[in-house]
Amino acid sequence: VFKMAESVKGKAAIVGSGLIGRCWAAMFARAGYSVSLYDIDPAALAPAIAVVATHLETLHKGGLMDSPVAEAVARVQATASLAEALDGAFYVQECVVEKLEVKKAVFAQLDSLAGPDTILASSTSVLPPSQFTEGLKNCSRCLVAHPVNPPLYIPLVELVPAPWTLPDVVERTAALMRTLGQAPITLRKEVTGFVLNRLQFALLMECWRLVEDGVCSPSDIDTAVSQGLGLRYSFMGPFETIDLNANGVVDYCERYGENVTKICQEMGAPRPLRGSATAARIEEEQRRAVPVGRFNERRQWRDERLAALALHKKQAKKF
Fold first, then answer.
1. The pTM is what?
2. H-only helix segments in the chain
3. Residue 291 burial by CB count (10 A; 0-12/13-18/19+): exposed, middle or buried?
């Protein structure tokens, strides 16, 4: 549970007021920071502030924020001036569209406006920071801080430094994320997809093969994860799982290692997803379960369950 700081801790600038930008704004405000929310489209700002207020109200009602909602909302200011947004900001979180040329252009602007110690972070989920920060005068203070959707309830943040990012910048960003209630991990080198998506895509591809090869139905796959694997993985990772499933990791490898290797070898090559008959089949089954007109209802249900899980995890006794 988060309590408001006695005084505003400093100013964070959020560049882009879309889905992720609004979530970042709410998280910084909840933690007691002053927030300047920028968007290139002035008309997007008022609705964005309204959504931030709704996020904070939801967090408060869910037991994930103790401080008065009005005080947190008051810490968020909107601006259509990038220079105004960055003025006095110790940290910038970029949340613009996921296109390399756009990222390059935005970071060039940030580079020209940022203070001498300001950290410049990107929310990109796929682009290595070296692709859009090379040659910037402040490149040593640039990195990726990739959240997981919806970041209000899923605390993981992947920190991905470029080869020229200063270690101190990574450490400061990790410490900052922890003050927001997030759980940062740090990649030691750039890799496409970072960590979360590489794990997610590996699981998704095997799910795809199992359906495509007629082993089981799409709904059975979802059940296997939501009622099986996902329950353990919601509070411990794969290494701790195998550690406890045997008498340590080495013992697990001695017992099951050959089978793990054999099964993985049988999985075969990746399958094409785009335009595939398997995609059409899974889509058909999903639409029977959740019609298009009920997407938002189902998303709200998802977020409510994630909020309840987040509260449970924060209240759970530490081992």
1. 0.93
2. 19-30, 45-61, 69-74, 82-86, 100-113, 130-133, 167-179, 196-212, 218-224, 230-233, 238-245, 249-266, 277-289, 295-315
3. exposed
Give the model confidence (pLDDT) of 162-192 as tens digits.
999 999 999 999 999 999 999 999 999 999 9
The pLDDT of 224-239, averaged and rounded, is: 96
Q: Which one-letter DSSP state was computed for residue 101?
A: H
Helix (H, G, I), strand (E, B) or coil at 11: strand
Q: What are phi and psi of 186, to 5 degrees?
A: -120, 125
List, for residues 110-149, the tens digit of each pLDDT value.
999 999 999 999 999 999 999 999 999 999 999 999 999 9
Cα(75)–Cα(37) distance, rounded to whole angstroms? 10
User: 167: burial class by Cβ within 10 Å (0-12, 13-18, 19+)?
Assistant: exposed
- Locus of tokens 């990195």: 143
Neighbours of 272 (CB within 10 A): 10
Residue 32 region, left (φ>0) first, then alpha (ψ -120 to 50), else beta? left
* HSE, side-chain direction, 13 A CA sphere, residue 172: 17
Residues 241 and 144: their CA atoms lie apart, in Å, by 29
- Integer CA distances (angstroms), 281 to 69, 95, 211, 286, in order: 45, 34, 9, 9
- Which residue is listed with tokens 């950290």? 119
Q: Helix/strand/coil (H, E, C) string of 244-296?
A: HHCCCHHHHHHHHHHHHHHHHHHCCCCCCCCCCHHHHHHHHHHHHHCCHHHHH
